Amino acid sequence: LDADNYETDPCLKEIQRAENYSWMDIVTIHKDKLPNYEEKIKTFYEEHLHLDDEIRYILDGSGYFDVRDKDDKWIRISMKKGDMITLPAGIYHRFTLDENNYVKAMRLFVGEPVWTAYNRPADDFPARKQYMKFLAEEAQ
């Protein structure tokens, strides 16, 4: 994706249309830009899940999403300018900045945004059960 021209990028527009991403905003994670920076960074790094997909498009900077594989081991995903990721509802994950301590990201949602994170353990939620069922089916 063309992060320098995200406002007019036809590829981004097509993704938004195809996936019904009807809401978006932009967040800058940097000590000079994000209120309660230290607290937020700790919160982002706490292992958690969401009941909706988490969609992030990196417009500038870089960082890491850590996700759990089917064997509950961490996988680190490096994200940089121009990258987009969709973390499915129910997947345990966390986010951290890299040594640059800066990222600017677009957050996309289907419908109204829901920011609630459920820290591990959160295995009783239907979204978690559905995600685990998906993993089991993929393993077959």
From TrEMBL:
Query: If you read the UniProt record, what top EC class would you report for this enzyme, in one word?
Result: oxidoreductase
Membrane topology per record = Peripheral membrane protein
Please give the GO cellular component terms listed in this UniProt entry: nucleus; plasma membrane
One Pfam family, short name please? ARD
Q: Which gene encodes it?
A: ADI1
What taxonomic ancestry is recorded? Eukaryota, Metazoa, Chordata, Craniata, Vertebrata
Q: What is its EC number?
A: 1.13.11.54
What reaction does this enzyme carry out catalytically? 1,2-dihydroxy-5-(methylsulfanyl)pent-1-en-3-one + O2 = 4-methylsulfanyl-2-oxobutanoate + formate + 2 H(+)
Cofactor(s), names only, from the UniProt record:
Ni(2+); Fe(2+)
Q: What is its main location?
A: membrane
Protein name per Swiss-Prot or TrEMBL: acireductone dioxygenase (Fe(2+)-requiring)
List the SUPFAM superfamilies hit by this protein, alphabetically. Answer: RmlC-like cupins
Q: Name one GO biological process term.
A: L-methionine salvage from methylthioadenosine
